[in-house]
């Protein structure tokens, strides 16, 4: 049985994917998300990034179909939580869509495509998602433990910690934190 602590974290991510807030995740949510993350601050959509993000998000959606246990064409909050609970019980064997989700999350933040996330990249992305600039900078400082960048390996560890840890003080919990850490 999934703990309330982890369930709350899983539902936070569910809410990000449920772009129309209808209580279920559907293919159209992934299409909408691709547009949202490919949108630059001036409101234009970077077509190259949009295509890249759409491909990654549709790969996540396609893999996530196995979570639709009642085969109704969407993933409910309960089905979503069950997938992440299974992952938490065996994080050494993530499903392919979970690996793609992790990589996608990293790539969205690594706007310089140099294999690491720096503070400016992190803060700009988090600001575009509604975080206050100072809050985002504080979160990055904690996640990076004062270093100037987060590597792919460090990000993977934090990502896994977010989905598996029961420790409320685990650094990974900040990765998808609410706007007021």
Automatic annotation (TrEMBL):
Keywords: Calcium. The keyword Ribonucleoprotein does not apply. Residues 5-40, 97-132 form the EF-hand domain. The keyword NAD does not apply. GO terms for molecular function: calcium ion binding. Pfam families: EF-hand_5, EF-hand_7, EF-hand_8. This is Sarcoplasmic calcium-binding proteins II, V, VI, and VII.
């Amino acid at each position: 049985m999934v703990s309330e602590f982890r369930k709350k974290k899983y539902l936070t991510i569910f809410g990000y994917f449920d772009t129309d807030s209808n209580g279920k995740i559907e293919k159209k949510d992934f299409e909408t998300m691709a547009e949202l993350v490919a949108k630059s601050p001036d409101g234009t959509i970077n077509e190259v990034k949009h295509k890249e993000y759409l491909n990654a998000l549709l790969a996540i959606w396609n893999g996530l179909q196995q979570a639709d246990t009642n085969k109704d064409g969407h993933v409910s909050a309960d089905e979503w939580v069950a997938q992440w609970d299974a992952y938490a019980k065996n994080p050494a064997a993530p499903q392919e869509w979970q690996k793609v989700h992790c990589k996608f999350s990293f790539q969205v933040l690594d706007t310089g495509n140099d294999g690491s996330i720096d503070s400016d990249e992190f803060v700009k992305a988090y600001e575009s998602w509604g975080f206050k600039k100072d809050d985002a900078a504080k979160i990055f400082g904690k996640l990076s433990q004062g270093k100037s960048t987060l590597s792919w390996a460090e990000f993977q560890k934090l990502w896994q910690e977010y989905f598996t840890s029961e420790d409320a003080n685990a650094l990974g919990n900040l990765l998808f934190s609410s706007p007021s850490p």
